[in-house]
């Protein structure tokens, strides 16, 4: 994309040319995006969508980049991260309306502080609400989709959509949004359950502590790389296949949690991809099971 073209995008939010994606993904890996924008509000977002559509420019919306690997060559197009007006929370009793750009951890702390059950076991998942909805974030038998009433989204014609729970097709780490890349989640409505504040907070602390003990939080990662197959846990299969500690460049299968690949310093996207392929092959040979990645590679 030419600089002159970039200059024609006028929004109230931020516009940055040649943005390093290392700064925007939890793996701290990736080349540059032609343009990075932070739409401040819905009108900004519509302007960005129209700009990309008119010019045939590729468009990618990210949250905290926690399930995302951008290739070393970068992203030829516009990357957007939702701005301030997409981080609001409102509650009316047990019903919560929340912007898709809010950190999931902030939402979880908010509802726990209100004494509401239903999200506390998702503590420690580092994404935004929008990303957590798209991938139906889950932990310890609890998933976000169980609590959804409806989702508001914007399509590539700038049409506002309201999608109700039964039409979202929530499954294990998936939803209709993973197949609808031209739908941008903007707002979510949830129904939670009342409880005692101290009980909810206690369970939240337990879930966070369990995650912190089990996961390699000292190194950049993308969380779990593979979905758990029906018959076993991916981490256990990877460990049994002798992949713990396996390394390509600065990309390494974590010794603490085998379903994590960590960046030991200067890992490249190609290192991560090669390591993923090696792990899948070894697990297939050892167990006959083909692991399905949940990491999105752009």
From TrEMBL:
Keywords noted in UniProt: Cell cycle, Cell division, Cell shape, Cell wall biogenesis/degradation, Cytoplasm, FAD, Flavoprotein, NADP, Oxidoreductase, Peptidoglycan synthesis
Keyword Repeat annotated: no
Localization annotation: Cytoplasm
GO cellular component: cytosol
EC code: 1.3.1.98
Occurrences of domain FAD-binding PCMH-type (ranges): 29-195
Cofactor entry: FAD
Pfam families: FAD_binding_4, MurB_C
A GO molecular-function annotation: UDP-N-acetylmuramate dehydrogenase activity
Pathway listed: Cell wall biogenesis; peptidoglycan biosynthesis
GO biological process: cell division; cell wall organization; peptidoglycan biosynthetic process; regulation of cell shape
UniProt-listed InterPro entries: FAD-bd_PCMH, FAD-bd_PCMH-like_sf, FAD-bd_PCMH_sub1, FAD-bd_PCMH_sub2, MurB, MurB_C, MurB_C_sf, Oxid_FAD_bind_N
Active site positions: 173, 224, 294
Catalytic activity: UDP-N-acetyl-alpha-D-muramate + NADP(+) = UDP-N-acetyl-3-O-(1-carboxyvinyl)-alpha-D-glucosamine + NADPH + H(+)
Protein family (similarity comment): Belongs to the MurB family.
Its biological purpose: Cell wall formation.
Name this protein carries in UniProt: UDP-N-acetylenolpyruvoylglucosamine reductase
Species of provenance: Aerophobetes bacterium
């Amino acid at each position: 994309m030419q600089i002159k073209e970039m200059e024609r995008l006028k929004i109230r939010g931020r516009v940055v040319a040649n943005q390093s994606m290392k700064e925007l993904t939890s793996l701290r890996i990736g080349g540059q995006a032609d343009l990075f924008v932070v739409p401040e509000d819905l009108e900004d977002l519509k302007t960005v969508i129209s700009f990309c559509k008119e010019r045939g420019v590729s468009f990618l919306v990210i949250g905290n980049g926690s399930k995302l690997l951008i290739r070393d060559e970068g992203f030829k197009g516009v990357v957007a991260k939702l701005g301030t007006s997409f981080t609001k929370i409102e509650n009316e009793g047990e019903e919560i309306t929340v912007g898709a750009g809010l950190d999931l951890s902030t939402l979880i702390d908010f509802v726990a502080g209100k004494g509401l059950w239903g999200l506390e076991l998702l503590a420690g998942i580092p994404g935004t609400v929008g990303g957590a909805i798209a991938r139906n974030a889950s932990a310890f038998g609890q998933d976000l989709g169980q609590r959804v009433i409806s989702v508001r989204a914007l399509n590539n014609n700038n049409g506002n959509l309201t999608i109700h729970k039964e039409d979202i097709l929530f499954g294990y780490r998936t939803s209709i949004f993973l197949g609808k890349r031209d739908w941008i989640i903007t707002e979510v409505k949830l129904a939670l359950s009342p409880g005692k504040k101290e009980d909810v907070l206690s369970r939240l602390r337990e879930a966070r502590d369990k995650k912190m003990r089990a996961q390699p939080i000292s190194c950049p990662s993308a969380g779990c790389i593979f979905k758990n197959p029906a018959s076993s846990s991916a981490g256990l299969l990877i460990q049994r296949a002798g992949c713990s500690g396996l390394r390509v460049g600065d990309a390494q299968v974590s010794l603490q949690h085998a379903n994590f690949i960590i960046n030991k310093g200067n890992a490249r996207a190609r290192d991560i991809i090669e390591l993923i392929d090696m792990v899948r092959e070894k697990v297939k040979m050892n167990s006959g099971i083909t692991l399905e990645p949940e990491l999105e590679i752009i």
